Amino acid sequence: MTAIFVSVKPEETRMGLVFDSKLRDFAVERRGEGNLVGNIYRGRVSNVVPGIQAAFIDLNVGKNGFLTLHKQDRLTEGQMLLVQVVKDCRGTKGPGVTRNVTLPGRYIVLEPFGNRISLSRKITCKSLRTRLRTLVQKSLPEGMGVVIRTAAAKAAAEEIENDLRQLLASWQVLLRRSKVGRGPQLLYRELDLSIRMIRDYVTKDVQKIIVDDEATYHTVEELLQDMGLTEIRTEWYQEKEDLFTHYGLNEEIASISDRVVPLPGGGSLVFDYTEAMTVIDVNSGHYSTGSDREETSLATNREAALEIARQLRLRDIGGIIVADFIDMERKEEQEEILDLLRREFAMDRMKPRVMGMTALNLVEMTRMKARRNLFGTVYTTCPMCQGSGRVESPETVYVEIRRRLRSLYLDHAMARSLVLSVHPLVEEWIRIHGMKDMEQEFGAKIRLVSNPSLAVGVFTLLNAPDGD
């Protein structure tokens, strides 16, 4: 069974899609965040940088948008143009923008500056593809393009035509707004998560949608009715307990941030993140299925491929991804794993691609980046380790303290009665392993103080007050 859970609170909206009792998609959108992806702006060219074939566009959002230029593009500073955000801000980088503006609908994505009719690759029936292409071609103005979405495969002709008419009307309104006023201006805002969820996730395979907010519940009901999806059951959850807690999904959500992900047979995936890519290591662990090493490796790799596809969606990992599978010597086994990944990726809206497998059984993949992923929304860089995932060991801090004391006593800068403040972990280690040696070396009386407000690698040394 497929169900969608939507929790709407003043501070955030959360959406989870559950398939066969397992969380398949999860998204969080915070109220205070500048979620810009999908927004269309009238922007001003701030400056053009030919050396990197790019221009920076003032959108009046705090950071200039980054526009990649093609050889035929000729822009000048101060020029006004329509752009759409395709990537949210990341760190010091501004949003990524494009001039290939699109307006997404339920069944159609309108490309006002396009020139062709494209269809979802998931629509495989040739006669259906021909019928859909012919249907849209009748109503599409010359000089425009569309992408026919997967949902159109099961829609009535009238529903598709209405969707296209609404998108064309929205485009005309947007154009009129673009001619009013001066300077950078927001012309079109992407829908909230709860509404995008209906547009992008709901298919006839979804049996029910459970919402904990009354206004959103009624909006969802109306949208489903307008889309002719009245067979999908909607529920307004009114209990005091958190929606995701009530349905037992919190544990799965909490595990999304785990570095190690267990596999059913005893193996595991280990996720590591760098600026340039995500690296996934496949470990066999104590996998017990299979009579020999080769069979065990293949069984683990099969489970790993399925879980990698799921985790990329759950964590919304984009960019370059490299997975280190357990060695497979036979070509047909390698192809089986690659085919399994491709089949699972076919259900992912961010269009992952499997680039191939190297001689070392490394599988190279890419996945589109757009919005801030879950980690960017929920987490921030650790002030202790600065994102490295490591801090100094207590022994390392102790060694540095002794090194510092030698220098201070050499300069006669410290008394023989001291107060040493350290992190609790360091305090415990020094008290057990190093206090006696340190006092003997310096002939000092040292009062050790545990201070949880200090970072692990930080300590303070003070002369003790008289009589202390």
TrEMBL record:
<feature type="domain" description="S1 motif">
    <location>
        <begin position="36"/>
        <end position="122"/>
    </location>
</feature>
<keyword id="KW-0460">Magnesium</keyword>
<dbReference type="InterPro" id="IPR003029">
    <property type="entry name" value="S1_domain"/>
</dbReference>
<dbReference type="GO" id="GO:0005737">
    <property type="term" value="C:cytoplasm"/>
</dbReference>
<dbReference type="InterPro" id="IPR019307">
    <property type="entry name" value="RNA-bd_AU-1/RNase_E/G"/>
</dbReference>
<dbReference type="GO" id="GO:0003723">
    <property type="term" value="F:RNA binding"/>
</dbReference>
<dbReference type="Pfam" id="PF10150">
    <property type="entry name" value="RNase_E_G"/>
</dbReference>
<dbReference type="InterPro" id="IPR012340">
    <property type="entry name" value="NA-bd_OB-fold"/>
</dbReference>
<protein>
    <submittedName>
        <fullName>Ribonuclease E</fullName>
    </submittedName>
</protein>
<dbReference type="GO" id="GO:0004540">
    <property type="term" value="F:RNA nuclease activity"/>
</dbReference>
<dbReference type="GO" id="GO:0046872">
    <property type="term" value="F:metal ion binding"/>
</dbReference>
<dbReference type="InterPro" id="IPR004659">
    <property type="entry name" value="RNase_E/G"/>
</dbReference>
<dbReference type="GO" id="GO:0006364">
    <property type="term" value="P:rRNA processing"/>
</dbReference>
<keyword id="KW-0694">RNA-binding</keyword>
<keyword id="KW-0378">Hydrolase</keyword>
<keyword id="KW-0479">Metal-binding</keyword>
<dbReference type="GO" id="GO:0016787">
    <property type="term" value="F:hydrolase activity"/>
</dbReference>
